[in-house]
Amino acid sequence: MNDTMSRYRTMIGHRLFWPAAVLFVMLAANTIYRPGFLSIELKDGHLYGTPIDILRLSAPLILVALGMTLVISTGGIDLSVGSLCAISGAIACMYISKQPDQNSLGVVVTALAMALGVSLVLGAWNGVLVAVIGIQPIIATLILMVAGRGLAQLITEGQIITINSEPYRAIGLGHALTLPLAIFIALAAALLVAAFTRRTALGMIIESVGGNAMASRLAGIRSGRVIFLVYVISAACAAVAGFMMTANVSSADGNAAGLWVELDAILAVVIGGTSLAGGRFFLSGTIIGALIIQTLTTTVYAMDISPQTSLLFKAVVVIAVCLIQAPAFRARFSRRRRNAPPPATIVDKPKEQVPA
Amino acid sequence: MTTGTLTAGRTRFRLPRKQIPVLATLALLLVMYGIGVSQYTAFSNVQVIFNVFIDNGFLLVVAVGMTFVILTGGIDLSVGSVVAMTAMVSAALLQDGMPAALVLVIALLIGPTLGFLMGCVIHFFEIQPFIVTLAGMFFARGMCTFISGASIPITDGFWTSMSQERIGNPQGNFVSISVLVAFVVVVIAAYTLAYTRLGRNVYAIGGNPQSALLMGLPVGRTRIAVYTISGLCSAIGGILLSFYTLSGAPLIAVGMELDVIAAVVIGGTVLTGGAGYVFGTVLGVLVLGVIQTLITFDGSLNSWWTKIVIGGLLFAFILLQRLIGIRYK
């Protein structure tokens, strides 16, 4: 019995427990509200259903949040990802729309390469501002966040660029092995990042820089380069997410593409248990966080509540998850429990054991 | 008395370096105004300046509140949404036929309450201001659409008279009530920061919260106070905006927090806290206003140039603060 108790304790204490529990509760609530929620059906060799939709729509957010996780684990923050999504989507769509044959694979690949290149340059700009000039990350990336929207509108000349390109559309809506292609892209990115950070020393180096940049520099780590690198990675992730967002609707809108995605991404990272102070990061937590946010959005749509009102629910979830994870809140809570008179705990114990 | 002379002596010693950002903003403002006057004859009309104030009065009030928060090293992302929520609530209540005075009181209470709650969460549970105010932003914006999905017009007599009241001289130049309210807020804020205990505490916490705590300053109370002040300023800003537009719309003032932060930074306040002036914030708001006016006067430039120019200015001013050696973390 003690064993079950301690196992229960370790499970509760596990960093993924609360995010996973929240996700599970939301899915369960949805299924109760709408019994068909979890059903998946096979049509024309493709799987369809709400869970698949949630996975597909969360792909861009997962990508952005992956990059954001690395940036946040160095103690930084990247506010410019939303603007970068808009810029990369705008460049790709603009180039494709100017070509005579929009369906040619070569054109699409060139467009993607160009947009990715520009995004990497912009990521490098962020990296230089933070790592070389030493500007506080929140401000350094605020510059590109404000100016980037302007740049995206400049590229699209304030218009919404509509394209008709099958290969490009496939990035957002295509299928592979009965599942949407976007899921595989996000999964591949997640595995790539996980492999590079957890199978090499890179992850630990990033965490050490986040823990104490000066100390890790004295220990022989080139902190500057690591910080520079994470901003470039974040920009690359944002660029691919931008392709997905624009491919979903086959058009690029400099104003609306990727709007607020930086906030959602930061939320996903924080819900996943990565501290904004840096020093530790959890990629699996981030992915669960992104799924929670997308499930919430889908739930609200399914319940016929206006998308703006969904922000109310988001606020509640954010505060709840942050409070549960905040050490100060936990300390207060457990202190109160410990302060309770001893008989109460004795009475409590058998109660818990009965169902076990 | 003694502390007064002591600080005066020290500021005289450090004066140039500390005030370079504010002076640079002032210089930039004068240069931009000069360009405007030399390019467009109508620009020299005093009314152009008054219009900048009329169009940006609410922004100015909100930016003053943000200055308090940023001076303590925090940030408040909820301001734009609180502005919208205040305007929305007043419009909805007025539509239901509530008397104007009561609506004014209720609307002015919502913002500070939300700010107070956010401050408490930030202080007692040690969650980053960024995340807490982000949740506040979501909450307030969600409340707006919860109240109504469409914009609500205001037809109340008090509101329309406040909106149409023009205070001017015989030459036909005028300002609106909003500008006067904004000025009063600026003066009170400047006095609070410069001459009261609260103001000293704000600077001390921004400089180094640990030292402030060890000195026995009320860190928690001050921190909660600045978010409450920011909430109050946002609420006043929301009322001014509803005077200006005579309606409450759920999607008004989206992204306003960025303009406000940009104005505060361009005004020379350091984002890690501890250094900056309300006067600088006023200049920062004016710079944004004059950029918009210049782009409107030009006519050939599109609205997105505003964003690019603001981004460029942000970069220039941050670089300047860096070069003259104001320390960033």
UniProtKB/TrEMBL annotation, chain A:
The chain crosses the membrane at residues 16-33, 54-73, 79-97, 104-122, 128-152, 173-195, 226-245, 257-274, 281-303, 309-329. It holds the Pfam family BPD_transp_2. It is found in: Cell membrane. Keywords: Cell membrane, Membrane, Transmembrane, Transmembrane helix. GO terms for cellular component: plasma membrane. One of its GO terms (molecular function) is transmembrane transporter activity. CDD domains: TM_PBP1_transp_AraH_like. Its main location: membrane. InterPro entries: ABC_transp_permease (IPR001851). It is a multi-pass membrane protein. This is Sugar ABC transporter permease. It comes from Micromonospora arida.
Automatic annotation (TrEMBL), chain B:
CDD domains: TM_PBP1_transp_AraH_like (cd06579). One of its GO terms (molecular function) is transmembrane transporter activity. Signal peptide: none annotated. It is found in: Cell membrane. The chain crosses the membrane at residues 20-42, 48-70, 100-125, 132-154, 174-194, 224-245, 278-297, 303-324. It is a multi-pass membrane protein. Keywords: Cell membrane, Membrane, Transmembrane, Transmembrane helix. It comes from the Bacteria. GO terms for cellular component: plasma membrane. InterPro entries: ABC_transp_permease. The keyword Nucleotidyltransferase does not apply. PANTHER family: ABC TRANSPORTER PERMEASE PROTEIN YPHD-RELATED-RELATED (PTHR32196), INNER MEMBRANE ABC TRANSPORTER PERMEASE PROTEIN YJFF (PTHR32196:SF63). This is Sugar ABC transporter permease YjfF. It comes from Micromonospora arida.
